[in-house]
Amino acid sequence: MKYIARLLAIITAFALLFAAYGGRVDPTIWLLPSLATLALPVVAIVAIAVMVLLALFRQWRAVVVIFGALLLSWPTLRLISPFNITTPKANPDAQQLKVITMNVTEFNWVGNEQPSKNMRYILDQDADIVVIQEGLVYFKYEQLPTVTPMLDELYKKYPYRKEAFFDVGILSKYPFTEVQTPILSTDALNYFIKAWDVDVPGDDIRVISMHLSSLRFNQNDSKIFDSINVPSGRKRRIKSVAKKLGDGFRKHVPQVEAMRRLVDETVGDVLVMGDMNDTPGSFAYRTLCGEDLKDAWADTGLGPIYTFRANHLYVKIDHILYRGNLKPLMCRRDKEGESDHYPMVAVFERE
């Protein structure tokens, strides 16, 4: 029994560590570690269940092996399920900055005359800076029937806006200057990444809005989750999903490398927000964060959350990352709006 228990513990520990640190491997070189990282939450739950089972049989050495693997995996696990049980104390003399990132699915304008719930949510939150993805792809705000009923309020709250843009944009209470850099000059990247230097009182903040390449999942792909136990067509569906994941992970590599170069060239405070289409701990996430960008949710949140909810996929792919003289006081996911993404909100303190 003890040999079987130890073998099971070793296999479990290896699977856990492989999933936890697979994001350190470039998916253009080897794809499997990136796929394993995507499965980390499930692998961690299985590892805990196996550890408890082994403890019931008093296989303590095997338990120690898995517990050790969990401890070694914690730097990645905390990105997915942080455990911050206390709230940071705010300095009453410091400036606070509230920000939102939201994939707005073009404010639901297609075939819809009702006011956009996404825009209503944004205006009600009254944040200082809002970055949006899947924004005004074809039209300006004045041409969207779902937004026009709120134009006066929009103009009043956000006098500084980027309206003539493709996909990503910004609403700000403070003036800003768009960053012009050859790093983002490639068309394929320019559609997904924009940066602005926002003139926030005290000192400028560089705000980067990202919308990395979509994985292009659809309702047919979600059938793999509905009929995982049905042999017919299962292999084909698995290959289809794996191919889309692989293609997306590989496309993200040059995009995050471009953003990372922009962050490296930036002096001062930086906020990187948006729809990464990749999970915490992934190669794209790790590459972008480098050694200096921190995650507002990992630093202030409690437990796992998801920000994407379509096609039976529930994953956190929207992020708020920061660097510099910024202290996160809170970060949350709100279940609001009509998009297939939920918004992320954070409040920072600047001394």
- The rounded Rg comes to 22 Å
As a percent range, the share of strand residues is 15-25%
Structural class comes to alpha+beta
Overall mean pLDDT:
90
Anisotropy-based shape? globular
Low-confidence stretches: none
Describe it.
It is a single chain. The chain is an alpha+beta fold and 351 residues long. The protein has two domains: 2-80, no CATH class; 95-350, Endonuclease/exonuclease/phosphatase (Deoxyribonuclease I, Chain A), CATH 3.60.10.10. 38% of the residues lie in helices and 19% in strands. It has eleven helices and twelve strands. The protein has helices at 2-21, 32-38, 40-56, 60-80, 117-125, 151-157, 187-190, 223-226, 234-265, 283-289, 296-300, and strands at 95-103, 129-133, 160-161, 169-172, 176-178, 193-198, 205-211, 269-275, 294-295, 318-323, 327-333, 344-350. The strands form two sheets. Strands 3-4-2-1-12-11 form a six-stranded mixed beta sheet. It has a six-stranded mixed beta sheet with strand order 5-6-7-8-10-9. Helix 1 (2-21) packs parallel to helix 4, helix 3 (40-56) runs antiparallel to helix 4 and helix 9 (234-265) packs parallel to helix 10 (283-289). The longest helix is centred in the last third of the chain and has 32 residues, at 234-265. The radius of gyration is 22 Å and the shape is globular.
